[in-house]
Each structure stands twice: as C-alpha cells, then as structure tokens.
Write a structure and sequence with these properties.
By secondary structure, this protein is mainly alpha-helical. The chain folds into two domains: about 70 residues, no CATH class; about 35 residues, no CATH class. Helix content is about 55%, strand content about 10%. Helix 1 crosses helix 3 and helix 4 crosses helix 5. The longest helix has 16 residues. About 25% of the residues are buried.
Length: about 120
C-alpha cells in the first residue's frame, strides 16, 4: 500500500478533534476504509506521530488503532492545519520529487517563517 499524505493528515486531524484526547475504540476516517486507516496508523506510530496499538490479524494487512497524538503529531498537524498551506507543502514536495516526513516538516516550517516575515 502506498503512503497517502492526505490520509496521514486526516488521521491527525481526527485524533486532534477527539474530546477524550485519545481512543481505544474503533477508529474511522470518512472516505477511507479500515485497512487504509489501520495501515497508516501503524506507519504513523513507527514515525512517532501517534501512539497506537498494533491490531494485525492478517499478516498481509498490518494495522494499528491510535490512542493519541504525540508531541510530534501535534506539531505536524498544527503546521499543516490550514488547507492552503498543506496544498503548498504538497506542491513543493512534488516539485522536489521527494515527500518524506522530514521534507514536509521542513517545507511547513519554511512556509510559516515566510508568512511571519510578511
């Protein structure tokens, strides 16, 4: 399965919006199926964006369910929350031909600094 950055952002936004600050219940993101969400939660856990529990039952479909955002997850969603900023970030990463977490964070920080200097 390919990593989907829009889904990563959607998961972070969904977790941030939870009143409880976390969940161990069934986690769903509108527009995506459970396998897509579960896989992305798992790789987001590996990247340090969320705390999650692996719930893989089929080795062909690794999955996790999230508990909460980490500090890094909060930082990333705060930087990418504005839709126009997120679109600029994706466009710049695409131009560079490389979209990684470090590249995305770097672009988002540069965009924020640029906005502050105006």
């Amino acid at each position: 399965m390919k990593r989907n950055w829009d889904l990563v952002r959607a998961i972070l936004l969904e977790l941030e919006g939870l009143d409880t600050g976390g969940t161990r219940q069934h986690f769903h993101v509108a527009g995506y199926d459970d396998l897509q969400v579960g896989y992305h939660v798992l790789i987001m856990k590996e990247a340090g964006l969320v705390e999650a529990e692996e719930i893989t039952t089929d080795l062909n479909n690794p999955m996790a369910t999230p508990f909460r955002l980490t500090w890094l997850g909060h930082e990333f969603i705060e930087a990418s929350k504005e839709p126009s900023t997120w679109e600029k970030c994706k466009n710049l990463a695409e131009k560079a031909g490389l979209f990684t977490l470090d590249v995305a964070k770097g672009i988002l920080v540069a965009l924020a600094k640029d906005a502050l200097s105006k």
